[in-house]
Amino acid sequence: MQAPEILGGRYQLGRVLGRGGMAEVREAWDKRLGRPVAVKLLYPAVSLQPDTRRRFATEARAAAALNHPHVVAVHDTGVHDGRHYIVLERLPGQNLADVLARNGPLPADHVRAIMRDVLSALSAAHSCGVLHRDIKPANILFTEFGGVKIADFGVAKSPDTPQTLTNRVFGTMAYLPADRIAGRPATPSDDLYALGVVAYEALTARRAYPQENLTDLADAIAAGALAPLSTLRPDVDPALVTTIERAMARDPRWRFVTAEQMRASLEAPAPAPRRAGAVLAAGAILLVLVLAGLLVAV
Fold this sequence. Notes:
CATH class of the largest domain: Mainly Alpha
CATH superfamily of the largest domain: Transferase(Phosphotransferase) domain 1
Number of domains: 3
Mean pLDDT: 83
Distance between the termini: 106 Å
Radius of gyration: 24 Å
Shape: globular
Strand order of the largest sheet: 1-2-3-4-6-5
CATH architecture of the largest domain: Orthogonal Bundle
Order of helices and strands: EEEEHEEHHEEHHHHHHHH
Low-confidence stretches: 163-167, 270-276, 288-292
Number of helices: 11
């Protein structure tokens, strides 16, 4: 029987939870503190690339510096047999992509709650000069209490990101605005745009831009070839629809500038109580009848 792999003399590795282009995530057990964790481990070949190692270090520092209830916590980082790793908080729930694939569209109130949590995290990140740059369903993880936390700051931009990396286009194209794909420098508005795309997907269980070919995808995003959310989900309240559509606007001047601005837009004005409306309507009718009576009397 093969002995379990131990990182740094402390973290006993378990099964693979997920794989990406430069790293895999493994479940693990922290032997020192007796708790479950997740370990993001660079692939051996990737660990030899200086740019990738810098991005990995940026991810660890950016997430650790935030210390926010809606950001997956970073516990430790290190190197084992030449492979760089980050030790992360282990969440019991699935990510949003898994939930949508299994359950289909989410109720509007649930999507609004997810957006509030993500916007809270983005507000904290942006105030520290950190841009996530890869907000998408797979990077939104559910907690055991139903809230969400954002994960994977692997392509984040922070104040200490090397200047040679700041103007490169990182992220997942389906969640990037056309002007960013064209090479415009990243801004906080890009994270908010991506959240709008995520919310659209959460309400419809379909990608806003489903094209698989990257050229076709870029063309569709540039053209704004998007099925109206109000048509796909006529039950969704106007405040939520308007917020999502504004976040995803083709013209960057129409998009939200800050997370606080987008969060304020989420809250729909309270409708007038039906009873009060009925009283006002009855009063109006009574007034009309009284006036009619006066005219007849005259």
